[in-house]
Amino acid sequence: MAIFDIKLPKTIANALHLPENSPRRQQLRVLKKLLRKARFTEFGQKYRFDEILVSKHPGKKFQELVPTFNYNSIYESWWHRTLEGIPDVCWPGKIKYYALSSGTSESASKYIPVTNDLLRGNKIVMIKQLLSLRHYENIPWSGIGKGWLMLGGSTDLQKNAGYYAGDLSGITAKKAPFWFQPFYKPGKKIAREKDWNKKLEEIVEKAPEWDIGFIVGVPAWIQMCMEMIIERYKLNNIHEMWPNLSIFVHGGVSFEPYKKGFEKLLGKPLLYIETYLASEGFIAYQDREHAKGMRLTTSEHIFLEFVPFDEKNFDSNGDMVANHEALMIHEVEENKDYALLISTSAGAWRYLIGDTVKFTDKERCEIQITGRTKHFLSLVGEHLSVDNMNKAIQMASEELNICIPEFTVAGIPHGNFFAHHWYVACNDCSNAENLRLLIDQKLKELNDDYAVERRSALRDVFLDVLSEDQFMEFMKSKGKVGGQHKFPRVLKGKLLEDWQRYLQTNDSLVTVK
Fold it and tell me: What is the pTM of this model?
């Protein structure tokens, strides 16, 4: 506990605890810092960063002069040149690291630039999050100084002509400071392993040698790892192996669908802390106990904008329309969905990251991730978000006392109308019809638009109960295995076709009835 009580040097304290200020001022300060650093890059020259810096209203001038980008547009116009070794394109110097995207909806990997400036900002936010633990009332101090099991991508990065590429978790672990190495598990050797199944086997083999206090990772893969350890050593729960395990830091997907099954593996409660660490940067983290949302990173290395996620700004495919509205942090409202635009210290400028968020507490700048711009269902105006789906699954599973670790939904034609087709992973569901009716009922309670359309063009709801293995095997077939990969909550287009074909042809996988 002493680490939280020491008096930090003034320079470090200033870096970690900036003076209290309004989020608007903090964000404008970050924007100016980014613009000054990148003013002499090709991007900065083209979009007149010098002119923005001397403007009386730099935020509005920035929005006026700099267009918005998605991955394809910024890659084709700018980022592809950095892969050729050209310096000073969108950020000063050469880009030496790229984070490979972990999405399942695109077949080609996305190369997201990662700079030392971005990693430095991420580390400051990580330390801030660690220091925020002292504000928790029921912090289990016994686990703080124990091992930290971080289940992420391989640190053996792809070496290309002048740069390295891999999961951000692998890049971060590879460049972790020396003082963290005694705490870091699974250690350098296992962390380098690229074969995910072999990595898990090696972790299971080493598990009795470690005293783990923290676990960090995506819920599905952490759960699988703990299940393997419990099975291998004939344990009743994971705490028989790691009695000091006390904190789970998770992110990437909503934890609620996993929580019931996850807690069956525990001997005592854990403290759950949510983070929003994307390939593009450390965007938000939970900094207080029982908070409904995560605090946005407003004073470090990311400038944030918010596009209302509605028909005025997005088309039916989830793409931004021309002349869309973009708000700064002081202009947002609570409990409204916004698509996130970020500008970062790695040369992402007004970049549509693809996530949608809502403010749960505007004064504290706390947000929840509600879904993806591409992962929502609105065939006939039902406006069903991933947040709605997660909550319906949670409510239904609690009422039926079952565990649903994975699910996905597709919108399909149904005669002259439409329907939703749910696929849920559940090994203890005794009545699929009850589950179907209950999910439909909960969605009607959560979403008025859905309730209206269920009486109109959205004529039916179908549901198949599968095994969790079927979801995992499909991910393997797509090459999406590992700590950062998540099953998409909504299936559309080719990915839906591949999923349907996979279920038809995989006779070896038996559907749970």
Answer: 0.78
